[in-house]
């Protein structure tokens, strides 16, 4: 029985067609051999891209290590007792202190005296590069004080391909450009404090369903063609490598049916050859599935332990299956990242502030500082996206009576020591309390929780406002004297499972029930991913809707500031909100084991680069709220588009490989500017966006943005610099980034569909 597989090169990318001649279940992995091209040997780190000094020191240290010491550096040990997610043991003889690796991308998890920062999706919704850097700086200071050498984040994959995917909220955006630029700021912010980032999850980790093998069912395989992986999924990783990331975490899924942590094409090929990556690759926790094979494919460290390495590694070197130079390179990459971050001098001892238990006596290491206050609060404020504001509902005008409803308005009934860092406790309760962060290993630890209700109470105290509330009734009674009814709902998500839909009948009903007797119903949604609003958006009594995302511990202060107009909302959607689930088509739900492949679930990325707004544009589907959309309390006008396109341009880059690829991919080729005027009455920030229509590609793709505060009546000029990489497509034949000859379209405006300025650029 044969299942024939054909690859058809379609006009705009590669579409793979699987044609079953006869139905027969595939039972052996050998069926898939060769689907991911072999790339060997594993490139040795060279020290290029500014890593020379770190490599020189690392090589000197590694040269002093015995075979067993080197081997011990490559996998996590349980012999070190602390609360870190993973530990590399010390080598006392060489004064190497060991390494602590710990969650998460939005703040330290599993300990006390730390803060809960806005999550990835909230950073994406803020579109603020400087703020992303400040947040990273403040978080990194806490990781450092706690003795965490490697912070497990930021997340730039998943890239939101599947609307219901459970970890999209940990990632920054569904757009690779937005994700990459804010992710790069994050890496730089961590580097300024000497903390190594482990950028995750590499690569194609777009669903939770079947992410790990279970019984005799293998992990889902993300089948991604060469053009799509370069232009979409690899894009943010390239940018974070360019920014100096010291660690990349390979993911649970398979890519073209080869486990991501044993895949030589993705690790040796794309990452260590094409992107010139100098750091180390660490497995996601438990994602190592082979010994010799993962070693040769480019995996450098296994976590939290390894059943494949250790004694077997030494045997494999002794019997010639693994060259010792490969082990040397693994350890050199690990140690070089440590030197590159400057952790060899003055760094707190690994895990010093990470106790194994918070209910037992432990040394207090207070990582909180006053410098975190501003990024915590601004970060929380800026990720709120106002999408509807009618009848002058917001900002509130000195309300005499506010009625507050919804299970998301108040703090959890308990937040005690047992809950710190515990997946289950957080998971079970967040559905009945205000959601400041979602579930799984990205659930960070708040120092306190400013809930919407607590913050509104403080404001009411100041203003002499009356409050009425009912958090749990799904059909509460409303005092007709209410100036406004605030309904707080959330949509929960967690690592380990995908969501079952994008709306929620219970909270939709709550909103409509309140609106039936309140003509000024304002809905606030703490959404861990896309949340549809069509069940209530057209209700005339629903006057305002805010996507409040996952603000971290300052949630209540932030929403109160926005509701009262102390700050004009300034976030924009980092994803597309459809009118209905079906509008996402095949990209709504995760792939499931099916047909001949019940033992080997297949997820074919046959849509190519057409995900999120690229798909809505290509399929002519009108979204409810488009990518990049968000309202504020003023209005802006756009004018004076200027495109300066001077230098003549060769088709391909010609520079040497630096961090992230050929160095000249980062050369500025075109400059675009525009003027923006605040035509309203209050000061507010606008996020100006630039989209490029590359000949033969999607109608438009984000390639520039800037967030700028503009006073009423003032005009500011915004300048966008377009790099070679921004204007290139991946040429699968030449295996290079290529400029296209012809007319490029340039669009500038306030969202992906409100683009008042258009121009062209000829290359
Ligand atoms: C996956 O397979 C496609 C189709 O053959 C190919 O274009 C791509 O390079 C492969 N990628 C990896 C990482 O194996
Ligand atoms: C390597 O690790 C093993 C297991 O933790 C330990 O028993 C051994 O002493 C270590 N070897 C060296 C040389 O540190
Ligand atoms: C060498 O050792 C490794 C690790 O134990 C083992 O997997 C491999 O089969 C051995 N190869 C030979 C040729 O003995
Ligand atoms: C939420 O908490 C309230 C009050 O403790 C309780 O009555 C209700 O059953 C809870 N709902 C859920 C879904 O846990
Ligand atoms: C809007 O609210 C008013 C009460 O303020 C109510 O009389 C009316 O029926 C509501 N309209 C809808 C469409 O629910
Ligand atoms: C909305 O999407 C759901 C889920 O895909 C589908 O069952 C339903 O038919 C769609 N409704 C409309 C009006 O398109």
Automatic annotation (TrEMBL):
Q: Which GO terms describe its molecular function?
A: beta-glucosidase activity
- Please, which domain of life does this record's source organism belong to? Eukaryota
Residues making up the signal peptide according to the UniProt record? 1-23
Pfam families in the record, alphabetically? Fn3-like (PF14310), Glyco_hydro_3 (PF00933), Glyco_hydro_3_C (PF01915)
Q: What InterPro entries does this protein's entry cite?
A: Cellulose_deg_GH3, Fn3-like, GH, Glyco_hydro_3_AS, Glyco_hydro_3_C, Glyco_hydro_3_C_sf, Glyco_hydro_3_N, Glyco_hydro_3_N_sf
Catalyzed reactions: Hydrolysis of terminal, non-reducing beta-D-glucosyl residues with release of beta-D-glucose
Enzyme type, top EC level: hydrolase
- Name-wise, this protein is beta-glucosidase
Query: What is the scientific name of the source organism?
Result: Oidiodendron maius (strain Zn)
